[in-house]
Amino acid sequence: MTRALDWLARTIIVALSLIATLSIIGSIAAIPSGSIEQRLRMDMAHQPTELPDDPRSSPDTETRGGDVSRAQGTGASKLVALPPSPPRNALEPWLESITYALIAIAALLAAGVFLLWRALGHWRRLADAAEPRI
C-alpha cells in the first residue's frame, strides 16, 4: 500500500510541477507590452488616408481592424482610424498574467505540501527503525 501511495505522490508532484512551470511561462508571455498592431493603429489615427471620390471604383474598399469614422473635408472624404478603446480598469491588461501567476503559486504550494507529506513519512520510517525494540 505504501508503494502505491509513494507512486501516486510522485506522480502528483510531477504534475503540479509541470502546471507551475507552464503557468510561469504563461504569466511571462501574457505580460502586456503593446503589440505592433496596437502601435500601428495609434499611428493611423494621426495620419488619415484619403479615399477616392467613388469608393466602388477602388478594389479594396474594406477597412481592416479598428473603428473607422469619416470626416468631411473640403470636397474629399477622409478615412480616420480611431485608436483602440482604453481598458476600463488599469489592471485589465494584467489580469491574464496575474491569473497565471496565481495558478503557479497554488501549484507550487500544493507540490510543497506533498513533498512535506513524503518527507514526514520517510522520517517516521527512520524513527521507527532507529527506535530500540523492547
Rg from Cα: 30 Å
Q: How many DSSP H or I helices?
A: 3
Overall geometry comes to rod-shaped
Main sheet makeup: 3 strands, antiparallel
Task: Provide the spatial order of strands within the biggest beta sheet.
Answer: 1-3-2
Oligomeric description of these chains: single chain
The unreliable regions are none
What is the count of structural domains? 1
Helix coverage percent? 55-70%
| Beta strand % | 5-15%
How many distinct beta strands? 3
Amino-to-carboxy terminus distance: 27 Å
Return the average pLDDT rounded to an integer.
75
Task: Kindly list the characteristics that best describe this protein.
rod-shaped; 3-stranded antiparallel β-sheet
Written account of the structure:
With 134 residues, this protein is mostly helical. The protein has one domain (2-130). 56% of the residues lie in helices and 9% in strands. It has helices at residues 2-29, 36-46, 95-130; strands at residues 49-50, 68-72, 77-81. It has a 3-stranded antiparallel beta sheet. Strand 2 and strand 3 (77-81) form a beta hairpin. Helix 1 runs antiparallel to helix 3. The two termini are 27 Å apart.
